[in-house]
Structures are given as structure tokens and as C-alpha cells.
Batch of 3 targets.
Target 1
Amino acid sequence: MYRFNLEPVLNHRRLVEETLQKDLAISKISLIDETERLITYEKNRDQLLEELQQIQKEGTTTSDILLYLPFIEQVSKDIERQKKRVLELEKQVEQNLKDLLEATKNKKALQKLKEKAFKTYNQKLIKNEQDFLNEVAVSQFNRRIRPQE
């Protein structure tokens, strides 16, 4: 029975790869969520700016216009903060992808080593079986020849 002596290492590499796949999926979901939040902030800012323009066209007082400015400023700060968050998550997704590719490469290298070792094992079994069959054939041949002598 064939037993790969590095099977525990291969199992560990599989586990690492699975963990990194999960991490990548989680970071991608977070990136999508944060990008959607950024879009929402930008829509809110655009809406506030449109309302401000509408108010200006209607000829309202300066105090009414001044009420909008802190809200617009706050939303603008939120947008900048959110852009930084999205950028961080993009970098995290990129790093997670690199880590996953490296882990996959390491696992595949070990899998190829296992396949090669298994092939060698099978070839050795076939050779041993052939040697045994040759020995049996020689033995039978010798039995047939010796009784006649």
C-alpha cells in the first residue's frame, strides 16, 4: 500500500489554501460593501448640491444656504474617508490574491511530487511483479527440463 510521507504537509497546504480563499472572498465582499457605501455618500452629496442650487435659484436667504454648507462639508469628509477605506481594501484584496496564488503554487508543487512518487512506486511494483513472474517461469522451466535428464 502506497503512503506519501509528506501527506501531512500536503494536507496543511490544502488547509492554508482554503483559509486564504475564504479570506479573499471576505475581503472582496467588504470591498464591494464599502464601494457601495462610497457611491451612496457621493449620491447624497450630489443631492445636497442640487438642493442647494435649487434654493439659490428660488432666491432664499443666506442663512438658509449656510445651513446646507456644514452638511455638504461633512458628507465630503465622509467621502474622502470612505475613498481611503476603499483603497485600503483594494490593497488587501490584492495582497490576499497574491498570498492565495503563492499557497496554490506551493500546494501544486507538493501534489506533483506526490504524483511522481506514486508513479515511481507503481513502476517499482510492476518491476517486482515482473521479476517474480520471471522467477516463477524460470523455476517451472527448470522443473520441466530436470526430470527429463
Target 2
Amino acid sequence: MHFFGGKAQTGFRIDTNAELLPDLCANVEWVSELEDDSFGGGMADPPYTEEFARTLYGCDYPQWSKWTKELVRVVSPGGLIGIMQNYPVPQLAGCVWEKIVIILLRIKQYPKIVTIQRKI
């Protein structure tokens, strides 16, 4: 399952942009359509900054405390959660850290840092 995943090629994609034809068009800050513990794992690739949200995606900057709570809620215990950002993200409530993966693509571009956690 992929929060902010309208452009993703795999998985159950959730995005607010209906033009991207996600599997579920919804705001990931509250995904009432999804039941607790309904996915074996989850990924999120949110806008990295308020400016990115506004200029690249034409949306409001999502509230970290809301969408991360939803992400943890819909992943089953023992499932992995990966969050891509330009910095390592804090440990989520109800999770433990597994690893951090750093992806360098080009000079003068933000690194992509995937923080992987396991829901307990």
C-alpha cells in the first residue's frame, strides 16, 4: 500500500489527485475507507516541503501527525513501513526502526532517504 502513491507503478496506490487514477482517491490524513491492520506493509512518499506540496503537487502540505498515524493504523502488526523523505524520519508510535536506506541520484538534488520501521 502506498500513501501519496498516485504515480507509483505497483501496490495499492492512494493519492488525492484523481487524474493519476490511484486505486483510492483520498486524503491520507484520514482514510476511513481502510480497516485497521488491512495491509501487510506500507510506503509513503510525501511532499518533502510546504513549497514542494504547493508548487509541484498543487496541494496542502500534509500534517505529519495525522497521516503517519493512519499509515501505522492500516498496516498489520509485524508489517514494514517505509517513509521516503530527504532526512531520516522519527520513530513512529507503535513501531521500531529496522534500517535507513539513502538513495543518491544527482548532484544538487535532495537525497532520498527511506526510513524503514516495523509495526509492533
Target 3
Amino acid sequence: MTMINIFTRRELTVTYSMEQESAIRSRLAAEGIDYIIRTVNRQSPSPFAGRRSFTGTFGQAIPLAYEYIFYVHRRDYERALFAIRSN
């Protein structure tokens, strides 16, 4: 098991689709690649999120409510990229 932290990680991909998130998780697990997912709720107000705290969710598309950010260890990046792009 590889230790993934802020100093050793690299952003692999970002998606707003739960189906894609599930497919990416499955592919990475099948290849034995460790990963971290950061889930961001785009509808929650946050004082650190810029204008979102002032405008709320008015006019925001519901399918874009959650953002899934995948991180992998730097040395696994190329292999992970190949895994998620190939079927």
C-alpha cells in the first residue's frame, strides 16, 4: 500500500457524474492502484468558496451538484491514466 498525501499525490481526473465516479473507482481498484477521492458539494454554502456563499444554488444545474476529484500517487499517474482511458 502506497502512502498518498499532499506531497506525493497528483490529480488524475475530475468528474461530476456519479456513474463515472463509480466506473473510475472500479478501474483503479481492478488495476490495484491506490487513490483518494475528494467530494465537493457544490450546493453547500461556504465562506471559503468565493461567490457561492453569496449566490447560493440559484440557477445551478442539479447534475453538477457534486464534484469528484481523484488523486493518485505520482508514480502511479501514467498507469492510472491508462487504466481509466482504456476499456
